[in-house]
Design a protein that fits this description.
alpha/beta, TIM Barrel, eight-stranded parallel beta barrel, binds L-Erythrulose, binds manganese (II) ion
């Protein structure tokens, strides 16, 4: 299994200015970086690719719906969201990234005072099917991440994420499991992980129940690592945590107190814990 670090520990959005962070993540001892790609136009593909190669690092990409919505009743809104994800896929492919992951069905934080309806589900399947067509042509994987109920009303459980992926029915679309969200929404987070299964598990975010350093809280880590081993999971496990200093992300993820000294401290302690458990 490869261990990555999301650059959100140091930046709210990956741009050319963030390239030195690749060096930093390599020096901390990670196998790769995860790019928070919210504005694909701001990525300097050549320089970023070179920095990855120079440091011998792999990469993944995390994005969110920054414009429109794949489940909107309005076709133009749906297309705007699809166009954003497709652009992210194209840039990610150019960077040589293995996977584009995240809540690709609805904007983070969008709540409408009710649960999802059948029309929204239908739109999600159709929009993500269009995204899957591009992913298949580019040969890049897409991970669909269920989020907790305070961040989305559309997809909260792994079971629903599996069903959504089954309906999209693509070799290149699978489930993205995040320990933080599963801890809130699943009755048994490890059984939920098990049920996703090896074939459908495309990406993992490792994050403690308070969104701080993995291993310092009550996420059932021992059972989690055992299950990944049973599944023979060999894709990326990425540390996703936040620090109050990155104001836009702190606001989006509701980080109101420090969870570590700073991003470096969090990354270093998280990596030590994950390496001790997965090698
Ligand atoms: C959001 O809570 C999350 O977990 C991310 O992976 C998406 O930005
Ligand atoms: Mn996540």
């Amino acid at each position: 299994m490869k261990i990555g670090c999301d650059l959100m520990l140091w930046t709210g959005c990956f741009t050319r200015k963030g390239i030195p962070l690749i060096d930093r993540v390599a020096k901390l001892g990670f196998d790769g970086v995860e790019f928070p790609m919210f504005d694909p136009k701001a990525v300097d593909v050549r320089a970023t690719r070179k920095a990855l190669q120079d440091n011998g690092l792999g990469s993944t990409v995390c994005t969110v719906i920054v414009t429109g919505s794949p489940i909107s009743p309005n076709a133009r809104e749906r297309q705007a969201a699809i166009d954003h994800v497709v652009r992210v896929l194209e840039v990610s492919k150019e960077l040589g990234s293995d996977c584009v992951a995240g809540p690709l069905y609805s904007p983070v934080g969008k709540l409408v005072g009710r649960g999802r309806n059948a029309a929204e589900w239908k739109h999600a399947v159709a929009s993500l099917r269009k995204i899957a067509d591009v992913a298949e042509i580019l040969d890049i994987n897409v991970g669909i991440e269920p989020l907790n109920r305070f961040e989305t009303y559309f997809l909260n459980t792994c079971e629903d994420a599996v069903r959504l992926c089954d309906e999209i029915s693509s070799t290149h679309v699978g489930v993205h499991y995040d320990t933080f969200h599963a801890n809130i929404e699943e009755k048994d987070p490890t059984a939920a992980l098990q049920r996703i299964g090896r074939k459908r598990l495309f990406h993992v975010h490792a994050c403690e129940n308070d969104r701080g350093v993995p291993g310092t809280g009550h996420v059932p880590w021992r059972a989690f690592f055992k299950t990944l081993k049973q599944l023979k999971y060999d894709r990326w496990m990425t540390i996703e945590s936040f620090v109050p200093a990155i104001k836009e992300l702190a606001a989006a993820a509701a980080i109101w107190r420090p969870l570590a000294k700073d991003g470096d401290d969090l990354a270093r302690r998280a990596l030590r814990f994950l390496r001790a458990n997965v090698g």
